[in-house]
Amino acid sequence: MQSFEALFGTGAEIHADAPGRVNLLGEHTDYHEGFVLPAVLPQRTVAAIRARTERDDRVVRAWSAGASDRIESFTLGTEARGRGWLDYVQGVTVALAGRGLAVSGFDLRLESTVPIGAGVSSSAALEVSVLRALRARFAFDLDDLALARVAHAAETQFVGAPVGVMDQVASSLGHDGEALFLDTRTLAVDRIPLPAAVDLVVIDSGVTHAHAGGEYATRRRESFEAARALGVTHLRDLDAGALHHLDALDPILARRARHIITENQRVLDAVLALRASDLPALGRLMNASHASMRDDYQTSTPEIDTLVAIAQGHPGTIGARLTGGGFGGSIVALAAAGRGKEVGAGVAEAYRRRTGRRATILV
What is the 3-state secondary structure (H, E, C) of the chain? Predict the structure, then answer.
C-alpha cells in the first residue's frame, strides 16, 4: 500500500480519523426529526493531508486505498458529481465553501477499515475524517456538532443521498463504550454508557447497499406522504395515540407511519432500559424493531432476516436486529458479557451453512 510520500512526493502535515457507527435503535426516524441511539465502531477512516499554500493553487489531489489505483483530482469551485468515492471529498469542499470556509489546494490520502455498503456509515466516517483534517490544517472554527452538519450537507446536498443527520453526528461526537441518545430535531445529545453486562456484536451480511437512490429514497418519500396525510410535517410529532388513525390511510403509507411512530417510542423505552440495566427489555425492543423494519417499513432482505433469526435464536443473545438503512448491510446484536465472540462465530457459521454466504464479524 502506497504511503503519502510515495504518492505525493512529500510527507503529510495532518492525520485525522473518524469511526463508523452502528445504530442500536431508531431506524429511519432521523429524517423525521425523531430519536436515535447509535454507537461508534472500532473501524475507522484515516485522512492524511498536506496543503499547498500557493494562492492560485486550487487543485485537490486524492487517493483512496482499495478504491483506485491512481490519484484522482478536481479543481475547487468546479466540483461535479459522478466520480464515485471522490464525490464525498468534493461534497466536503463544496459544503465548506457554502459556509464561507475556504481551503486552498491540498493532497489527500484515505485509508479505511470501515466496510463499504455494510450499513455502518462508511461515508460519514470519510466525510468526518476529511473535515477533521481540514479543520486542523486551516484552523476552521467548527465544533464537533457544526462539523457534523457540514458533513451531512456534503452527503445530502452534493452526493445526493437522502439520509438523516444521525450518521455524521455519531461519527463526529461518539465515544467508545457509550450509546448516543440523539434528538435529531434539537441535536441534543445524551451519552449513555453501554452496560458492562453486554457484549456488542455487529455482523456484516455480505449483501451491500447504497443510499443515493432506489428503495431508501422511496421509503423516505412514502413516509412523508403519510405524514402529510396525518396532518403533520414530521412523524416525530405523533405518538402511539395516532396509531388508530392509520386505518384511514393507504395500507402502504399506514405501514410506513406505524414503523416510525413505534420506532421513536422504542428508542425512548430503550434509553430507560439502558439506564436501568434492564437487558431483557432492551432485547425485546431490538427484536420488535427488526419485525417493524421487516413488516412495516420493508427494508430487510431474506438474507438479513435469516441472519437476525439465527442471532435471535442463539442462547447467548439478548436481542438482534437489522441496523442501518436496510436493503442489505449488517445486523447488530447484544450478547451476554463474555459471550460475544461465541455468538458472532456461531451466527456467522450457521448463516454460511444456511445461505452459502460469508458473513463478516465487525465487532
Answer: CCCHHHHHCCCCCEEEEEEEEEEEECCCCHHHCCEEEEEEEEEEEEEEEEECCCCCCCEEEEEECCCCCCCEEEECCCCCCCCCCHHHHHHHHHHHHHCCCCCCCEEEEEEECCCCCCCCCHHHHHHHHHHHHHHHHHCCCCCHHHHHHHHHHHHHHHHCCCCCCHHHHHHHHCCCCEEEEEECCCCEEEEEECCCCEEEEEEECCCCCCCCCHHHHHHHHHHHHHHHHCCCCCHHHCCHHHHHHHHHCCHHHHHHHHHHHHHHHHHHHHHHHHHCCCHHHHHHHHHHHHHHHHHHHCCCCHHHHHHHHHHHHCCCEEEEEEECCCCCCEEEEEEECCCHHHHHHHHHHHHHHHHCCCCEECC
Domains of the chain with CATH codes: 4-192 (3.30.230.10), 196-361 (3.30.70.890)
What global pTM score does this model have?
A: 0.90
- Helices 251-275 and 214-229 cross at an angle (nearest 10°) of 90
Q: Which residue has the cell 440523539?
A: 182
How many other C-beta atoms lie within 10 A of the C-beta of residue 231? 10
pLDDT-derived band at 336 (thresholds 50, 70, 90) equals very high
Do the Cβ atoms of 16 and 46 come closer than 8 Å?
Answer: yes
Of 61-70, 300-309, 314-323, minimum mean pLDDT range: 61-70
Which has the closest alpha carbon to 62: 16, 110, 96? 110
Cell of 277: 440495566
CA dist 33 and 30 (Å) reads 5
Catalytic residues: 167
pLDDT in tens, 231-278: 999 999 999 999 998 998 999 999 999 999 999 999 999 999 999 999
The 10s digit of each residue's pLDDT in 140-158 is: 999 999 999 999 999 999 9
Instruction: Return the biggest CA–CA distance within the chain.
Output: 66
Please compute the mean of the pLDDT values over residues 102-125 and round it to a whole number: 90
Q: In 10 A of CB 197, how many CB atoms?
A: 12
Q: How far apart are CA 288 and CA 31, in angstroms?
A: 21
